[in-house]
Amino acid sequence: MKKPFTLLDDFGKEDGEPPHLRRNKIVSLLKEKFDFENSHLHSPTGKDKGILSKCFGYFAPEQAKELGIYPYFKEIQEIDGCHVVIDGKEAISVSTNNYLGLAQEPRVIAAARDALEKFGIGCTGSRFLNGTFNLHKILERELSSFLDREDAIVMSTGFQANQGTISCLLGRRDIAFSDRENHASIYEGCSVAQGKTVRYHHNDMDHLEYYLKKHSDVEGKIIITDSVFSMSGDIANLPAIVKLAKDHGASVMVDEAHGLGVLGEHGKGVGSYYSLEDEIDVYMGTFSKSLGSIGGFISAKSEIVEFIRHKASAFIFTAALPPASVAGVIAGLEIMINEPERINQLRENTAYIKRGFFDMGFQVNNNSIPIVPIQIGEEALTLYLNRLLFDDGIFAGVAVSPVVPPLNAMIRTSYTSVHNQNDLDKVLGSFKRLGLKLGILPKE
User: Residues of the chain with pLDDT > 90: what percent?
Assistant: First the structure.
């Protein structure tokens, strides 16, 4: 990995300068070296024609790599809980959704190993034909029992669970009302469905109500929302959504990807958190966050699940989830239910880190969601800070346009039950020291 240019050395020490002026100067210097907003622009040449020409004019990743601030596709060589080794360098990971530390839990690994030895590495076919093993059915029954719902269907990824379900439920005369910050998989499902989709402003119930009234003549309506929004860490206003759904004859689908294992009784999610489980018509969840594996599922009334089983292309035409992954999820679900101290520790860690960031001057959500985005703004500055954090032993995520709106770039951090206080203090210390140096934080 290349070293980034020594911006702080170039800029020098100006201890008496106001933070906002220092920040502006650093941003100007950064943009001389890497103009993120315009890095995609390229004047076509005679050779750059046709559908693939856009590929040869896309220079942003290469420019960022040349400067040593490219943040993506880092190769993790070793992992132990929240600690990783990348390029031979040890770091604390705050770029993980392994909320309950189950991805490396010995009992989960043992269950996966047993299934691997018994069934092999894959199912070599779709669930619809030869790919349904007894493990898939066991997991579906366990999920239904845990959530106190009639049935469940396990799919190969969370993305496919959303895409496949929405695309088969949303008929030509139907309409979906979707929060603007919903997962991309929800919008993919809406885009390939025959019906119409309208996007209401993020968590804006007045805007949702406006659209529901505007389309009051439509019989088939469904409101789709993330329970916990993956970038902002906001919680959906589920009580208001449920009320509006009842008032306007709409069904409710909730994506609990980041709510499962985090909120509610035994980690059942936001529906449980608000005591509104019975008001959710379609519950979607994933195994790639709190349960530490891969895959997704839908839980609903048996008739709904049976319809999805026979109509969802993303389910019918995809190879089944490998046995080892399924067995690991079964074991992880049992641990999550029987060891509530994991969720309690996660909540304690979340409260501690958020209080630390707030005391520094960062704006953070006052909730128990372990997703803690640190808003920076300028994309190039965000990429540079992310690299400096890595040099300081902190492996964080970064979100830039188009994942977030332009000039709303953030360092996306997330926390687990296996971070200890020393880990959290080091994270806070690095953010504070670098935030002051870059003029992101006010002077003490």
Answer: 80
